[in-house]
Design a protein that fits this description.
about 325 residues
Length: about 325
């Protein structure tokens, strides 16, 4: 396999690169992002070539150099996240739409039929028809944010390119990934990781939304498993229909998340979470449905997530705490 990952400098991109290197199936792995991504540090097969490239995918010159006819799989993880895309419409359009279309069109010209794994988002949906209504892929999206709208536009184009045989897409609507290590991101949901990550490191964290709000979440381990699985799903499994899949996740309320934080880090950690409502963040996050019927994902063999408690234990096991 000759694999390219865009947005490879991010947490999911780095975790995916590490998993691909450890798996031993790839012979070539190219990682690209606006800042040069790090190569996986884990043990790698001797015959694996890894190339790390700094560049901007809005550049046709860069796309021409990266998107070659020998690629077998392309993971598209790049993007301006929800909060940042809402704050800067032009940047969101340029990166989330224009750069992505440039990638699509370059690939269909130089490598028609290549398998493309595109990470979309459940933010393509607006509020559900009624509280607690479980959405499926059959429900019509009506995004409540520019980020969701930009992702939906790319989904539509990529589905059409797959229908025409230009590309062979796997379109994955990801839940909110919990818990992300490192610094906060530009995502409106960044607080969801922050209210665990910072308190477990002895630092304060801001909760900008109501405790009554619920989110559709998934652990990083399960996300990576499902990205790898998507790569290997035979085209025939989609039966000529839509390539869009809502990935499995869990519905949890902010209140439940705080209780889980207390169980792991104690009252001391819980008291480091400061409630400070932010109207813009709350408006964006409230537009995301929190319940899904993921029958299609299960039929295609995607992995269901574990419990919230197990996710937090995995996070502490992998990244520990850094209290001073």
């Amino acid at each position: 396999m000759n694999i390219l990952i865009t947005g490879a400098g991010g947490f999911i991109g780095q975790a995916l690169a590490t998993a691909l290197a450890a798996e031993g199936k790839a012979t070539s792995l190219t990682l690209t992002d606006v800042v040069e991504p790090a190569a996986p540090q884990s043990a790698q097969p001797d015959d694996l070539t890894i190339r790390c490239v700094q560049g901007d995918l809005t550049s046709q010159e860069l796309c021409d150099s990266l998107l070659t006819k020998d690629l077998t799989h392309v993971f598209l993880l790049h993007g301006i996240m929800s909060g940042a895309a809402e704050a800067n419409l032009e940047l969101g359009i340029r990166v989330n739409m224009d750069a992505t279309r440039t990638v699509f069109d370059t690939l269909r010209t130089v490598n028609p039929g290549v398998r493309v794994i595109f990470t979309s988002t459940t933010a393509v949906y607006g509020p559900p028809p009624s509280p607690g209504f479980p959405l499926t892929e059959a429900n019509a999206p009506c995004p409540g944010s520019s980020y969701g709208a930009q992702k939906l536009i790319c989904e539509t184009l990529l589905n059409d390119y797959s229908r025409r045989g230009f590309l062979d897409a796997r379109i994955l609507r990801l839940p909110t990934v919990l818990v992300r290590p490192g610094k906060p991101t530009g995502a409106a949901s960044s607080f969801a990781s922050g209210i665990f990550r910072e308190p477990l490191n002895g630092q304060k964290s801001i909760l900008p939304v109501s405790k009554d709000l619920s989110l559709w979440i998934c652990s990083p381990r399960t996300i990576i498993k499902n990205l790898l699985h998507a790569r290997d799903i035979p085209t025939e499994a989609y039966q000529g229909g839509s390539r869009v899949v809502n990935l499995p996740g869990l519905t949890v309320s902010i209140h439940e998340m705080l209780e889980a934080l207390k169980a792991i880090g104690g009252q001391e950690a819980l008291e480091l979470v400061e409630e400070k409502r932010d109207a813009l963040t709350e408006k964006i996050v409230e537009s995301w449905p929190a319940m899904y019927d993921t029958l299609k994902a299960k039929q295609l063999g995607f992995t269901e997530d574990g419990t919230l408690e197990q996710t937090l234990k995995d996070y502490v096991e992998n990244y520990g705490t850094n209290k001073t």
